[in-house]
Design brief:
Layout: H1 2-17, E1 36-40, E2 55-60, H2 64-73, E3 78-81, H3 86-91, H4 93-96, E4 101-106, H5 113-125, E5 127-132, E6 150-153, H6 159-169, E7 202-203, H7 211-230, E8 236-243, E9 246-254, E10 270-271, H8 276-279, H9 281-290, H10 322-326, E11 343-344, E12 347-348, E13 353-354, E14 363-366, E15 369-371, H11 375-385, H12 399-412, H13 416-428, E16 433-435, E17 452-453, E18 459-460, H14 468-472, E19 482-484, H15 486-497, E20 501-502, E21 505-506, H16 510-516, E22 558-562, E23 566-571, E24 576-582, H17 593-596, H18 599-613
């Protein structure tokens, strides 16, 4: 897992940093119609159901650009074969038997005959899509071409064609190519199968589509981010901007820290803080609402028994509904420092901690620091006993989000992380959005650190959740804890924008998305929807300096911000998705230039300006 991650990072960096060949800047736009699907058994193209089966990519030759783009849709291991080394081909046949869905890419048609036989055998025995990065004439000389059930060609080999082929394969773009000539008795002039564009991202190709808009927007962003970094708003960041389902901007800037010169890469994972609220428990609560497992207007204590009234224990939260809680209308206190009771005069109390994993101490707080399992009871007790405000106004609180994972586990009978990954992330092709990334095989080198925590952990928080409440829950919480990159968060936001579907997968009906995105209590001057933040109720009457999230934001737009320096936003009216990730709290949360410069909202307004001028 870790080796695969590093190889993938290298390929992504190589693809994004390599200068485009001068000739490719002037390739004709007709090449966009040269990717041709010649056979499509069982409608294998575009690839659907990314959560079903074990995928692998086999490349004969070199297809770095193709594999890098493919990995943004679906990460899978890469098996490379030298065109002149037949032994290598046969040595991986047994390994590939462990997989049941293959993407086979042939970069060079001039290969050893034994390799041709091995590839043809793979295509027959395992569900495969075979791509030739070449023109159709080469097909006549390939052994077993007639037996390949799913076959596509790119019309030649260059960076742009590799990129296009990957996007067509996963439905980011439709295939419309037709053969300009006959190929022996195999294919006739005009042959080609049209494929559909799925509701997945397509990605901007430099020098071609949307190029003027891309360069205009990118030049503004480059200068703005350079200034923000120089002002120490954050050491580095990732940005994704999409319009009408096409990713126009997908960039990484700066470094992991101000001292360490590790550059930010597009695959790096950031602690997204409160963005977790709409990326973790919320989509599951939406699914549970859709199948009527939960009722938004029922007392939340019906699902979370700890808040029920008991004979000798009254609860001030027994009548609160999930609807009230999701819009922060329940009057709960904003936050509780749960860790305070585990320390005495700045020292960790042995009754609560161990320096190594033990059966009763499994909540990993840091390297060689484990919290007692039973401390969860105190967390839930403190939440239950916390006061409730009588004020009818909105009061932002993290407390109910702390218990949503446990509620979801009780209602589904499945571990919260498992149900989240299996039912939400994997169907969307999301593999770089996880809790506790260090426990999932990721390296610290691909995770920018957050704060030097002098109050609680007394160390640099790196690869573990920054939020102290989520930390005492073992890093898995509904209020914080997720780590992600911009691409995978962008997929989730595009799913929301689509009304609950993405890439052919329907997670919940459109009417559920519409209800969760509706402002629930405008009469109480509460701008929020169910889980989502929304623009000011009078946003169109404000100025650029006091609008939220931006002056151009439509009332239908929604998203969330995170304390670590993150933001996600989507706008159905303008069909935009925006993701900004940074570690602005490094090395200290006192660094607040990101707010002084209004970085997150200013970038969003730049995107609106671009959309409104098109």
């Amino acid at each position: 897992m870790k080796v695969f991650n590093l190889i993938l990072i290298f390929l992504i960096v190589l693809t994004n940093s390599s200068a485009m060949d001068e000739g490719e800047k002037h390739l004709p736009d007709t090449l966009f119609t040269e990717v041709t699907v010649l056979r499509n058994h069982d409608d294998a193209i575009p690839v659907k159901h990314l959560h079903k089966g074990r995928f692998a990519c086999v490349v004969v030759g070199n297809a770095d650009v193709f594999y890098s783009r493919l990995s943004l849709y679906k990460e899978m291991p890469l098996f490379g074969i030298s065109p002149k080394n037949p032994g290598m081909a046969f040595s991986i046949l047994n390994v590939l038997n462990e997989y049941d869905r293959l993407v086979i890419v042939i970069e060079s048609s001039f290969v050893d005959k034994k390799i041709e036989q091995a590839i043809s055998r793979l295509a027959r025995e395992i569900q495969s899509v075979v791509l030739f990065l070449d023109d159709a004439f080469r097909l006549m000389h390939w052994d077993g071409i007639g037996e390949m059930p799913t076959l596509m060609i790119s019309g030649g080999n260059c960076r742009v064609r590799q990129d296009l082929a990957a996007q067509v394969l996963f439905g980011g773009r439709a295939a419309t190519g037709r053969l300009p000539y006959s190929v022996g008795n195999l294919f006739q002039e005009g042959d080609g199968i049209s494929t559909e564009k799925l509701s997945r991202f397509s990605y901007h190709i430099p020098g071609h589509d949307d190029d003027e808009a891309h360069h205009h927007l990118k030049s503004k962003i480059d200068g703005f981010i350079s200034h923000a970094i120089s002002e120490q708003a954050f050491p580095g960041c990732q940005i994704l901007m999409a319009i009408n389902g096409r990713v126009l901007i997908h960039e990484a800037y700066g470094h992991h820290t101000y001292m360490d010169r590790t550059p930010v890469h597009l695959l790096d994972l950031y602690d997204v803080a409160s963005v977790t609220k709409i990326a973790g428990p919320l989509p599951l609560l939406m699914k549970l609402t859709a199948n009527e497992t939960i009722n938004l207007d029922a007392a939340f204590s019906h699902y979370w028994s700890d808040w029920r009234n008991r004979l000798f224990r009254r609860s001030n939260k027994s009548d609160l509904t999930l609807r009230q809680l999701l819009v922060h209308q329940g009057g709960l206190v904003p936050y509780i420092n749960f860790y305070a009771g585990t320390k005495d005069d700045g020292m960790f109390v042995r009754r609560f901690y161990r320096h190594q994993y033990e059966e009763r101490f499994t909540l990993e707080i840091d390297d060689h620091l484990y919290l007692r399992n039973r401390y969860l009871r105190r967390v839930y007790r403190d939440i239950r006993r916390s006061p409730v405000s009588e004020n009818a106004g909105s009061r932002y609180s993290c407390l109910s989000f702390l218990v949503y994972p446990s509620v979801i586990e009780e209602l589904t009978g499945i571990d919260y992380e498992e149900v989240l990954y299996e039912n939400i992330y994997k169907p969307l092709g999301i593999s770089r959005m996880v809790y506790n990334p260090l426990q999932k095989g990721f390296y610290r080198e691909e995770i920018p650190p957050t704060e030097m925590d002098i109050a609680f952990r007394q160390t640099l928080v790196h690869g573990r959740v920054h939020d102290e409440a989520a930390a005492v829950l073992g890093g898995v919480s509904g209020n914080a804890g997720l780590f992600a990159n911009a691409n995978d968060l962008g997929k989730l936001m595009q799913m929301y924008l689509n009304g609950g579907h993405y890439g052919g997968e329907v997670l919940f009906p459109e009417d559920i998305m519409a209800e969760f995105n509706r402002v629930q209590f405008p009469e109480l001057d509460n701008r929020r929807a169910l889980g989502f933040d929304k623009p000011h109720l009078d946003n169109n009457e404000r100025t650029d300096n006091n609008a939220f999230p931006a002056l151009g934001a439509d009332a239908s737009s929604f998203g969330h911000l995170g304390f670590t320096g993150t933001m996600v936003w989507a706008d159905p009216e303008h069909q935009i998705v925006y993701v900004f990730l940074s570690n602005r709290i490094h090395p200290s949360r006192s660094h607040n230039a990101i707010s002084r410069l209004r970085v997150r909202t200013a970038l969003l307004q730049m995107l609106y300006d671009e959309v409104l001028t098109q």
